[in-house]
Specification:
single chain, alpha+beta, 6-stranded mixed sheet, 5-stranded antiparallel sheet, about 25% strand, elongated
């Protein structure tokens, strides 16, 4: 543990976050953090409940004189996105997160930090442990598996919560209040291929696309960042069509809610075409890097000689796969006509994977491959309008509607409709202005928040979301701006006092 973290202010919040960083908590494997929170609540002698899926609820009574104040839910999710650089050795199921302090930020350089949403968990824990802040009755809700399907929020029972006011602590920009979010869903396509003997008189090559920024598939989708799946496929499509190239292996991207940062493929080229291929590859790589030179200045595209493989993907499947990936949409589809700068509808071509690399298979915890001869493509769609989200799903379906392609859809999640007359919003705005002398920005976001599902489970729930400033979430290099944590703590405690 970096001991410097323990000296940051507010000390209780950073102290709990430092402990959380030591606890492995991938989505779907939150048993250790659930046990930690349960023991924490019980040690404070507070009512503590754990439901069937692992959601934790800790209730704290009102401070003296505030017994008649409205009860408020504080809510964060306890899982984290587990992304690391391909050359980094880190086991997210066993290893603690390493982070350093640089220029006012706490940053995990080689992995994700888990401030999304570990800092929200730490804020809640500090509220529960405090003996000095003034508040009405509080319910602290810690949900599981938000990042890969909102399982915790989906599983909430109608009688689990009693409050009808909620503060979600999963926002990522100081000075901004979120009062609405997009709904979303996933589309997965699966190809079955045949293995064929590698043709004679072919030479093998390994193609790598790396050093893209990646990022959150909702919050960062409008930043025109490169997508490793798209870039790698563009190269392979041209190799296949211009030089009779055959593919042995392909893997690009990882999690469905992250923009693909890295990709690689092994292929073979007829010896008669290798000289022309080398010249063409260098030209194409230079052109692609020039296209992205502003938004992706570190983009790296390489081609190196490799050991000739024994087998390749059958040509028919190869052609279908490359055509489907080329035709599959990615990025912003429409912007909101009502809220300036807000993405209304988008889709993320998240990953393409197949068996063949044991390390890659070990990293694939989200949507596993089902068969030995399978290629899997994962995508995610988002929209603040339900009908537009379905239209986007249908559009992606059409890109894969070829023989031998099996399409499936994960359960979608609803959006959260903004309420400008919210009491929570009014109280929070007043507190912010009093504390910091300026008005916060009130907005809706294109990312998904559990508020949509919670609002569906508990009709009439008055909700707001805020948090400190995070950058680079869902990608290695995720960081949190240190001084904004103090601001968030001051705001949270003042809102609890003011309601």
């Amino acid at each position: 543990m970096n001991q410097e973290i323990l000296n940051l202010k507010p000390k209780p919040v950073w102290g709990y976050f430092a402990e959380i960083m030591q606890i492995p908590r991938p989505s779907g494997k939150e048993e250790k953090i659930t046990a930690y929170l349960k023991a924490f609540g019980e040690k404070l002698k507070l009512e503590t409940k754990v439901d069937a899926v692992g959601n934790v609820l800790i209730r704290k009574p009102a401070t003296k004189g505030r017994e008649k104040s409205p009860s408020i839910v504080l809510q964060s999710h306890i899982d984290m996105v587990c992304e690391k650089n391909s050359d980094t050795v880190h086991n997210f199921e066993k290893d603690p997160i390493n982070a350093v302090i640089e220029k006012g930020w706490l940053i995990a350089k080689e992995t994700t930090l888990g401030a999304d949403n570990g800092i929200g968990v730490a804020l809640q824990m500090a509220v529960l442990a405090s003996t000095t802040i003034e508040h009405g009755p509080i319910e602290c809700l810690f949900t599981v598996d938000e990042e890969t399907g909102l399982k915790g929020a989906f599983s909430l029972k109608p009688d689990f919560l009693t409050s009808r006011m909620l503060i979600n602590l999963d926002s990522e920009e100081d000075g901004e209040f979120t009062i609405g979010c997009a709904g979303g869903g996933d589309t997965v396509a699966r190809f079955l291929y045949k293995k064929e003997s590698t043709p004679a008189n072919h030479e093998a090559f390994l193609i790598n696309v790396s050093d893209l920024q990646g990022g959150h598939s909702g919050e960062d989708i409008n930043k025109n960042r490169g997508n490793a799946v798209k870039i790698l496929n563009r190269i392979l499509w041209n190799i296949s069509n211009k030089f009779e190239g055959r593919i042995t292996y392909i893997k690009a991207g990882n999690l469905r809610n992250a923009i693909a940062r890295e990709g690689k493929s092994s292929c073979v080229i007829p010896k008669k075409n290798t000289t022309a291929f080398a010249a063409y590859f260098n030209k194409l790589a230079k052109e692609i890097k020039a296209e992205y030179q502003t938004n992706e200045p570190k983009l790296n595209i390489t081609c190196t000689a490799a050991k000739k493989p024994a087998q390749v993907i059958d040509l028919k499947t190869q052609q279908t796969l490359l055509n489907c990936l080329y035709g599959c949409p990615h990025g912003v589809i429409t912007m909101s006509p009502d809220i300036q700068g807000l993405v209304q509808t988008s889709t993320n071509l998240a990953s393409v994977k197949m068996k063949g690399d044991k390390k890659d298979e070990a990293d694939d915890k989200e949507i596993p491959l089902l068969k030995e001869n399978e290629i899997k493509i994962a995508t995610s769609q988002r929209s603040s309008i339900e009908s537009a989200k379905q239209d986007m799903v249908d559009m992606v379906d059409c890109a894969f509607q070829h023989r031998g392609v099996k399409i499936s859809h994960a359960d979608g999640y609803p959006g959260w409709k903004p309420d400008l007359n919210s009491k929570m919003l009014a109280v929070s705005k007043k507190s912010y202005k009093k504390l910091f002398g300026s008005d916060p920005l009130v907005k809706a976001i294109h990312a998904g928040l559990e508020c949509g599902l919670i609002g569906e489970k508990y009709p009439g729930m008055d909700m707001i979301s805020f948090g400190p400033t995070l950058m680079g979430v869902h990608a290695p290099g995720e960081k949190i701006e240190i001084h904004t944590v103090q601001k968030c703590w001051d705001l949270l405690t003042d809102v609890l006092k003011s309601v």
